[in-house]
């Protein structure tokens, strides 16, 4: 026993000379931390596995509930609901006013335009064609078109034709063709 205690005492003094008391305390703390991690890590892994299993079960239950509660509408109901989203032709004048407002916001001069209504008897939808020949810069045209499409959800850009007269010209001749879709009678 005397020999073991003398070896331990000699190691203690050698350690104290090499790393000092703060180093010895730090080493002791690292050892305790390693011991604690080895004791606790298996529990953490077990808990993580249980949480993963619970999550998978909850996800399966959620997907099953979604499938059970999903109501498939009938095709005729879908068609009626879709058709109801479109405005009636009565709103055509206000849509044209909003188109002119968007032109004014973009500082675009609409001096003339071609307007045509395509109404097939008994059709679910009526289309109103608007063709506008304009002269403006590319940025102005882009701003105007984006403004119209954002302001009027029943409008679509059917055609856009842009020509530049000269290479160094910033003004383009454009032909903008909008189609407004309305609910049929």
Span of the ends, CA to CA:
109 Å
User: What sort of overall outline do the alpha carbons produce when their principal axes are compared?
Assistant: elongated
Radius of gyration: 39 Å
- Contiguous low-pLDDT stretches (5 residues minimum) are none
Sheet with the most strands, sense and barrel status = 4 strands, antiparallel
**Structural class, from helix and strand content?**
alpha+beta
Number of helices: 4
Mean pLDDT reading: 85
Strand content: 15-25%
Order of helices and strands: HHHEEHEE
Looking across the biggest beta sheet, what order are the strands in? 1-2-4-3
Give the total of beta strands: 4
Helical fraction: 55-70%
Question: How does this model look, in words?
Answer:
The N and C termini lie far apart (109 Å). α3 packs antiparallel against α4 (138-151). β3 and β4 (172-183) form a beta hairpin. This protein has helices at residues 2-69, 75-84, 92-105, 138-151, and strands spanning 114-118, 125-136, 155-164, 172-183. The protein has a four-stranded antiparallel beta sheet with strand order 1-2-4-3. By secondary structure, it is α+β, with helices and mostly antiparallel strands. It contains four helices and four strands; from the N terminus they run αααββαββ. The model has no long low-confidence stretch (mean pLDDT 85).
């Amino acid at each position: 026993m005397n020999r073991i205690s003398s070896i331990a005492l000699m190691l203690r003094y050698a350690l104290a000379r090499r790393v000092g008391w703060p180093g010895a305390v730090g080493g002791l703390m690292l050892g305790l931390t390693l011991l604690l991690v080895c004791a606790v890590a298996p529990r953490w892994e077990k808990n993580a596995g249980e949480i993963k299993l619970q999550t998978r079960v909850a996800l399966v239950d959620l997907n099953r509930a979604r499938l059970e509660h999903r109501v498939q509408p009938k095709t005729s109901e879908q068609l009626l609901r879709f058709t109801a989203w479109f405005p009636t032709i009565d709103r055509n004048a206000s849509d044209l006013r909003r188109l002119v407002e968007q032109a004014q916001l973009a500082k675009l001069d609409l001096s003339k335009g071609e307007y045509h209504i395509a109404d097939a008897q008994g059709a679910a939808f009526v289309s109103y064609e608007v063709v506008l020949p304009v002269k403006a810069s590319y940025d102005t045209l882009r701003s105007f078109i984006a403004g119209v499409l954002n302001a009027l959800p029943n409008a679509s850009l059917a055609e856009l034709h842009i020509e530049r007269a000269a290479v160094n010209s910033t003004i383009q001749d454009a032909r903008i063709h909008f189609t407004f879709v309305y609910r049929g009678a």
